[in-house]
Structure formats: structure tokens, C-alpha cells
Write a structure and sequence with these properties.
mainly alpha, hpI Integrase, Chain A, 2 domains, three-stranded antiparallel beta sheet, two-stranded antiparallel sheet, globular
Length: 375
């Protein structure tokens, strides 16, 4: 390894340690910063990081915006560019304060790692998230007609997504003790080793008003594990499929049963869900779209401000604006937007407004007349 590469790796390691211990970022977030730095190294041919300057920042920005997607002639999105640039600004800002780099890196050059205002607007505008319809969710779940443990588990898994809007990482790490059967409350608690975003404790009452059968499917599965399989409190609610060796150990096959072992990552669960969509003959929606669907259904209800806050907390948000405003949750579907506008009787409401104003004017005149008469 050349001295430049070695020096770059050492300073990068110091930056990642800073993110982990000082900023307390998760490994997943740190990976985002690392990938952004890889982009810079790809552009600069792994040149010394101290070479960063205004000119190089401008060149990199143009290089990035013209970069093609893997195995495609299509350019990467502006939202991707926006994220890469914001991660790099943090890195080079930190680097400009480190010994041996302070005098070499112009901190003002970091500001050149910005898209134009128009590009930033495009990159950050909420994107319409396509979600399955209620009928598609019902079809997806009801299509699982098998009686094996794997079939019943998958039915319960999909049902829980529709009951809580929980993230897949949390669902994967739920243990039996995370669910209060009597109160129908799911505790997504990091103290119980549940992987939640930013390690938040999330209390989620199951909401079955949209699809009542989903609650039945989940409870039947939970009761089965507890009473017939004798799963202990630390066992997973959605355990791994049991795999056994085939003849002469030349292959492996799914037994249709489960074993009390947690999935190592969420990829396997995603593959299970994708397979169930294919079997139901429905286009695939990734697991997070169930969360969007859940919020959109909630938004159809006439909730008070306090009720909105409670719902917001149950999906793991501190601010109701995150739930009902950000990430596209609060954006009315474009077709629905047009439908609402078409349904407004502008002529009638305009007449009512004028009438209201006239009545108000008459009342004011009457008051003036009364005062004059008294005088």
C-alpha cells in the first residue's frame, strides 16, 4: 500500500470512529458516509485527500451528476447526488479541522459541494410512493392457503405489517415477550433487542379496523408458538424456516417447519414477501410500502390533534409532521387531489361567501343605526 493510500485509510478510520463514538451514528449511517467517500476516491483516483479544493469540488460535482447507473446508460438521480454531496461536506468539514489538514484544505471550498437551488428543489421534493391497495393486501394474505408452519408464519408476518406499519428490521427482531397478548400491544423496545430506527422505544397497539382478519391470523400464530411449540419469551415471533440436508447431503430443502432462531438479516424476509406477491399474482411492493399504506389509511380518519400525536408515536415518530407531512405521507395522491378539486362546487361556495359578507354588512349597518337613534 502506497503512503498516500495508507494516509487516506488512517484518516478515514479516524472519521468513522468520530461518527461512531462522538456523533453516536449507527453502522448503517456510517456506511453511507463511507460510500460517499468511495465516490470521491473513484473520481480522484485515490489521490491524497488533502488535495481537496474549490476546483476539485466543482469537477467532482459535474462528474457525479454525469455518472451512469450500474449496467445502465441512465444517469444517477439528483437525489442520490444530493445525498453524496451532503455526506462529503460533513467529511471534509471534519477533515479541515484535523492536524496536518488544517492549512491544506480551504474550508470555504466545502460550500462548492452543493447542487444548484433548482437541482436541490428537484432532489428533495417528496416523491409519490406507490402502495398496495387494501384489496391487494387482502388478496396477498388470503392467497396463503397452506397449513404448514411456514405458511402460517408468512400469513401472520404480512398481517402484522398491516396492523402496525412497523419497519421490517423491527419485525425481524421481535421476540415473544415483545407482545402483550391481553392488551394487544406490541413493544418495539431496544432493551428487548428489537432493532428500531435510532434505537427508539415504540409502543404500538394493534389496529385492525382496516382488515379485521389480519388480527386473527397474527393471534393464531402467536398462540400456536406459545401453546403448541412452547416457544419461550426470548424466542422470535417470526423464526427462521427449518432447512435440512437432502439425500447424501447434496442439497438442502425447506421442511415447511420453523425453528426458534432469529433471521440474521432482513434480506430473507424481503425474499419471502416477494415470493408471496408472485404467488398471489400481484406486482411486488417492498415491505416499507406497507408502512406508507398504513399511514395513508390512518389519514383518512377525522383524528384530533392528540390522536394524531398518539398515532405518530406508535409508528416511531417524535413529530406528527414527520408522520403526516414528511416522506410523502402527508402528500395527497395526485389522482385524489384532482378528484377533490373536481368535487368542489365553486359557484355555490362563492355565492354562500358573498351572502355571508352581505349579511355581515347588514348587521354592521343595523348597529350603526341603533347607535344613531340613541344619540
Amino acid at each position: 500500500m502506497t503512503s498516500t493510500l495508507y494516509k487516506n485509510e488512517i484518516i478515514k478510520r479516524g472519521f468513522f470512529e468520530y461518527l461512531r463514538n462522538a456523533k453516536r451514528f449507527s453502522d448503517k449511517t456510517i456506511d453511507c458516509y463511507e460510500k460517499a467517500i468511495w465516490q470521491w476516491e473513484d473520481f480522484s483516483n485515490k489521490a491524497n485527500l488533502s488535495n481537496f479544493n474549490k476546483t476539485e469540488a466543482e469537477k467532482f460535482k459535474n462528474w457525479l451528476k454525469n455518472k451512469k447507473k450500474a449496467k445502465s446508460q441512465e444517469r444517477i438521480s439528483l437525489s442520490y447526488c444530493y445525498d453524496i454531496l451532503r455526506y462529503l461536506r460533513v467529511f471534509f468539514d471534519w477533515l479541515s479541522k484535523q492536524k496536518g489538514y488544517k492549512k491544506k484544505i480551504d474550508s470555504l471550498a466545502i460550500d462548492y459541494l452543493h447542487l444548484t437551488r433548482e437541482e436541490t428543489q428537484i432532489a428533495t421534493q417528496p416523491r409519490e410512493v406507490e402502495t398496495p391497495t387494501l384489496e391487494e393486501i387482502k388478496t396477498l394474505i388470503e392467497n396463503i392457503k397452506g397449513k404448514s408452519e411456514v405458511d402460517i408464519r408468512d400469513k401472520a408476518l404480512l398481517s402484522l405489517f398491516s396492523l402496525t406499519g412497523a419497519r421490517i428490521s423491527a419485525v425481524r427482531t421481535l421476540s415473544m415477550k415483545c407482545f402483550n397478548r391481553e392488551k394487544l400491544i406490541l413493544y418495539q423496545d431496544p432493551k428487548l433487542k428489537v432493532e428500531t430506527k435510532h434505537s427508539k422505544r415504540i409502543v404500538s397497539p394493534l389496529i385492525s379496523c382496516f382488515y379485521k382478519e389480519s388480527l386473527t391470523y397474527f393471534l393464531e400464530w402467536f398462540d400456536y408458538l406459545e401453546k403448541q411449540r412452547n416457544f419461550k419469551s426470548d424466542a422470535p415471533i417470526f423464526p427462521m424456516s427449518k432447512i435440512e440436508n437432502g439425500e447424501e447431503n447434496l442439497s438442502y430443502y425447506n421442511t415447511g417447519q420453523v425453528e426458534p432462531v432469529f433471521w440474521k438479516n432482513s434480506s430473507s424476509l424481503r425474499n419471502i414477501i416477494k415470493k408471496r406477491f408472485e404467488q398471489a399474482g400481484i406486482r411486488y411492493y417492498h415491505p416499507h410500502t406497507f408502512r406508507h399504506w398504513f399511514i395513508k389509511k390512518i389519514m383518512e380518519l377525522p383524528l384530533t390533534e392528540v390522536q394524531q400525536k398518539a398515532i405518530s408515536q406508535s409508528v416511531g415518530h417524535e413529530d406528527i409532521r414527520t408522520t403526516f407531512g414528511s416522506y410523502g405521507y402527508g402528500k395527497i395522491d395526485e389522482n385524489r387531489q384532482v378528484e377533490i378539486i373536481r368535487g368542489i362546487d365553486f359557484e355555490r361556495q362563492s355565492k354562500e361567501t358573498k351572502l355571508s359578507l352581505n349579511e355581515e354588512t347588514i348587521e354592521q349597518l343595523a348597529e350603526k343605526i341603533k347607535r344613531k337613534m340613541k344619540e
